[in-house]
């Protein structure tokens, strides 16, 4: 019993102290609780608005794609020029006002339209815009890869190599065409007469994507061809030097 009384004697003052503290500071406590509640409500509202905006943006892109598909059969015909130009204007306006994945998809539709028209500088620019808009999404490496292909169509080898390298720089994003991009870098370096750099690029294909039989086999064959060519050149040079001494 005595122990019980002692406990009560200790607990009562503590309880009184808490009540007294709340009474003295009830205004700031309630204000703080209200601020937290308002912050939570504001956060929920922001998320809801963002979801609404995102939904509208996705719907807009889907509508653009439907219009693109409807024009596709006649997209290069003169009688469709007004409709195509109008669609391009609408998509570009949307893409410039938005960001992220939806903007990237919008730029990709623009790139496809210019691709049908074989306007390779515009294709390259649109794919670069798509990659920059859709950073950290699966669309970025695809867009850079397609920009590389468009640069190749223009004979811009250095720029193509740069775009392919950019497609490979997205290390944290799965990119199925990665070994093809790495091989393309080697192929372009080889076309520039830079055999050593090309061999290194082909070796990167083999070491980086050993599971891909197609591109590793091609890389192996190009390494063998380049190394054989280098040996033949060395042998010819040695023979020529020997003949000169005689």
Describe this structure in words.
This protein is mostly helical. It has a domain at 58-140. Helices cover 84% and strands 0% of the residues. It has nine helices and no strands. It has helices at 2-71, 81-97, 100-116, 120-133, 139-153, 157-168, 178-191, 195-208, 213-245. Helix 1 packs antiparallel against helix 2 (81-97), helix 1 (2-71) packs parallel to helix 3 (100-116) and helix 2 (81-97) runs antiparallel to helix 3. The termini are far apart.
Keywords, separated by commas or semicolons:
single chain, 246 residues, 0% strand, flat
What Rg do the Cα atoms give?
32 Å
Low-pLDDT ranges: 5-10, 37-53
Structural class based on helices, strands and sheet pairing: mainly alpha
Biggest β-sheet strands, sense, barrel: none
Task: Please estimate the helix content.
Answer: over 70%
Element string (H = helix, E = strand)? HHHHHHHHH
What is the CA-CA span between the terminal residues?
Answer: 122 Å
Number of helices: 9
Strand tally:
0
Q: Given the C-alpha coordinates, what overall shape results?
A: flat
- Strand proportion: under 5%
Q: Write down the overall mean pLDDT.
A: 83
Would you spell out the secondary-structure blueprint of this structure?
Layout: H1 2-71, H2 81-97, H3 100-116, H4 120-133, H5 139-153, H6 157-168, H7 178-191, H8 195-208, H9 213-245
Helix pairs in contact: 1-2, 1-3, 2-3, 3-4, 4-5, 5-6, 6-7, 7-8, 8-9
Brief digest:
The chain is mostly helical. It has a domain at 58-140.
